[in-house]
Amino acid sequence: MKSPVRVVVTGAAGQIGYQLLFRIAAGNMLGDDQPVILHLLEIPPAMQAVQGVVMELEDCAFPLLQGIVATDDANVAFKDADYALLVGAMPRGPGMERSDLLKKNAEIFSVQGKAINNHANKDIKVLVVGNPANTNALIAQQNAPNINPAQFTAMVRLDHNRAIAQMADKLSVGTHELSNMTIWGNHSSTQYPDISQLKVNGEVVKDIDHNWYENDFIPTVQQRGAAIIKARGASSAASAASAAIDHMKSWALGTPDKDWVSMAIPSDGSYGIEPGVIFGYPVTCANGQYRIVQDIPISDFSQQRIDATNQELREERAAVEHLFS
Ligand code: NAD
Ligand code: LMR
């Protein structure tokens, strides 16, 4: 049996936290042979609810769950942490853009970035889910100067999965038959779901009606979060947790041959993106490291959309630069 790893989930009493914790403890994220110690971080008013979650986790008698730390102190939560899923933040309601949350949630990520810097394992893998996820990840990263900046990532995997589901439906194939989907940029309505490299069973997909692609598929994927808020009266939770599991699993355990996944990661300037912003890229993962897929041909149509989401991320960064340590 491997030694246990410590996994932090913030917002542990929230909607996503409630889905996520049980799947991590069941081995869905890091594998059936990886014991875990869960660290649950919440704010003081939610600590009673967290105790209920702890009782339920105990009641599952998960063989891989070797301990639980529940706390409202970030310095305790991130102590020796190997993985962190930063979920705890306010969700948007009807009529809001995710960027409307920037001021409300930014402070959370600067405090947690500092706690990660001071207490976590130096190789910690961080995934930011709380919105606006890309720029919150940048805030956390900028407050953690002693941690490799590449260890801070944000979630566009939900968008990636949504795009695959929409295309599978359009092409009347199973989701498992599709590969090489890409989400470029921000987890926002400027994101660009790019199907130019999409394959079905290894064959490039051709003959997609461009009008449908531009005026139906792209807006459907971009606006899916808002459609769910309208339908449920609350933002996506089970699908978000599932995508977070997928993101961390790919990063920790690797991606399949001949496929890639979309992760928002610090730009190294690839594809002309502003260096440093946390940008959704196609990546492959192996040995716990991700690598941007290079040399994808970019059409004028794609370039315009990549530029728009790049510009939005630069503007978001400018709005929070005062929070960088
Ligand atoms: P929720 O309101 O149900 O839960 C959030 C929890 O975070 C609450 O229990 C709250 O007490 C806690 N919290 C607040 N501040 C905290 C802090 N400083 N430390 C620890 N915990 C804190 O919300 P939710 O539905 O679980 O969504 C959480 C976030 O995830 C939202 O910002 C939402 O917009 C975002 N989200 C992102 C994606 C994505 O694809 N990136 C998808 C879905 C939701
Ligand atoms: C989503 O995409 O479902 C989440 O980011 C929630 C939201 O605000 O859209």
Word description of this protein:
It comes from Marinicella pacifica. Belongs to the LDH/MDH superfamily. MDH type 2 family. The protein is of the alpha/beta class. The chain contains ten helices and 14 strands. It has helices spanning 15-25, 47-59, 74-77, 102-119, 133-142, 157-171, 210-222, 224-232, 238-253, 300-320; strands at 5-10, 36-41, 65-71, 83-86, 125-128, 152-154, 178-179, 182-184, 192-194, 199-200, 203-204, 261-266, 278-286, 289-292. The strands form four sheets. It has a six-stranded parallel beta sheet with strand order 3-2-1-4-5-6. It has a three-stranded antiparallel beta sheet with strand order 7-10-11, with helices on one face. Strands 12-13-14 form a three-stranded antiparallel beta sheet. It is globular. The relative contact order is 0.13. It binds nicotinamide-adenine-dinucleotide and (2S)-2-hydroxybutanedioic acid (LMR). (2S)-2-hydroxybutanedioic acid (LMR) is lined by residues 91-92, 98, 131, 158, 225-226, 228, 235-236, 240.
